[in-house]
Design a protein that fits this description.
There is one protein chain. By secondary structure, this protein is an alpha+beta fold. It has helices spanning 2-19, 38-67, 176-186, 196-207, 247-255, 257-260, 272-282, and strands at residues 76-83, 86-91, 96-99, 101-105, 109-116, 121-123, 132-134, 140-145, 150-155, 168-174, 237-238, 243-244. Helix 4 (196-207) crosses helix 7 (272-282) and helix 5 packs antiparallel against helix 7. The chain is elongated and about 105 Å long. Bound molecules: dinuclear copper ion (CUA).
């Protein structure tokens, strides 16, 4: 349609330029000019207005259809919360809270409430959905649906501070069987500490410094500012889906989080004993 409009407009323009250009030895004066041609002015403003109004109402229908497919009982419900700089994923019906890694069953509509715990972020999985702003105090609704099994990358798409670019997440679309297995594991309580060293870490996590921001099992703050650690090691990456979750990176993180991700909310110097203890326990949280 645009190409058609372009050809007609440019064609008429070229025709008029060539057909009515000034002849070489023309003695013609400027032709008579017309002002305040009421009827013509009404037509050339009225017609476009009518066209735009018609398009507006057609678009409302499409926007409604795209924004909210009829919600069904079988839909998976999800709450997405943006934090500086990571994503929290709550499955209210499944009693699961996780971070940065979103598991969804294939061919299932996921009804998502998006909000933010601090500044404005934007939830965006280019291959699965449009962008939805995550605004503190406001719940925006969106949905997505994965038709093929695989991993899809998501990214915060609203500038939200120093580490905006490092606020990623991964959507894992998996078979219903794999999803059910994941759910069953996530619903388990955290692995209990087995050694004295692990017990020291457990105390730190449930009753010490860490418990001010992180949840472990049912222990933790009301609105956690840090990711839920109950099944930390079941995830592939951490710190906003940036670093591979392995022993080496986790230790570097505990030693100096600010060196790895400057400006993040975790700014605490642990002693070597505390780090050793935390490592011995955190690595068991599969
Ligand atoms: Cu969050 Cu950009």
């Amino acid at each position: 349609m645009s190409a058609g409009v372009f050809l007609i407009v440019e064609g008429l323009l070229l025709y008029n330029i060539i057909a009515f250009r000034e002849k070489k030895d023309s003695k013609e004066e400027i032709p008579p000019q017309h002002y305040r041609e009421g009827l013509i002015e009404i037509i050339y403003t009225g017609v476009p207005i009518v066209i735009v109004i018609v398009i507006f109402f057609m678009m409302l229908g499409t926007m409604n259809a795209v924004a909210a497919p009829a919600s069904q009982a079988s839909d998976l419900k999800l709450q997405v919360k943006g934090h500086r700089w990571w994503w929290e994923f709550d499955y209210p019906d499944l009693n699961i809270t996780t971070a940065n890694e979103l598991h969804v069953p294939v061919n299932t509509t996921v009804q998502i409430d998006v909000t933010s715990m601090d500044v404005i972020h934007s939830f965006y999985v280019p291959q699965l959905s449009g962008k939805t702003d995550a605004i503190p105090g406001i719940i925006n609704h969106m949905w997505l649906r994965g038709d093929t099994i695989g991993q899809f990358h998501g990214q915060c798409s609203e500038y939200c501070g120093l580490n905006h670019a490092n606020m990623r997440f991964t959507v894992i679309v998996e078979s219903q069987t794999d999803f059910d297995a994941w759910v069953a594991n996530q619903q388990k309580p955290p692995v209990q500490p087995q050694t004295e060293q692990q017990q020291a870490a457990y105390t730190l996590l449930t009753d010490g410094m860490c418990s001010m921001c992180h949840d472990l099992g049912d222990n933790g703050p009301e609105n956690a500012t840090g990711p839920n650690l109950t099944h930390l090691m079941s995830r592939q990456r951490f710190a906003g889906d940036i670093f591979d979750l392995n022993q080496e990176n986790l230790r570097s993180w505990l030693e100096d989080t600010q060196a790895m991700k400057p400006g993040n909310d975790m700014d605490h110097k642990f002693s070597k004993e505390q780090i050793d203890a935390l490592m011995s326990y955190l690595l068991t949280l599969k």
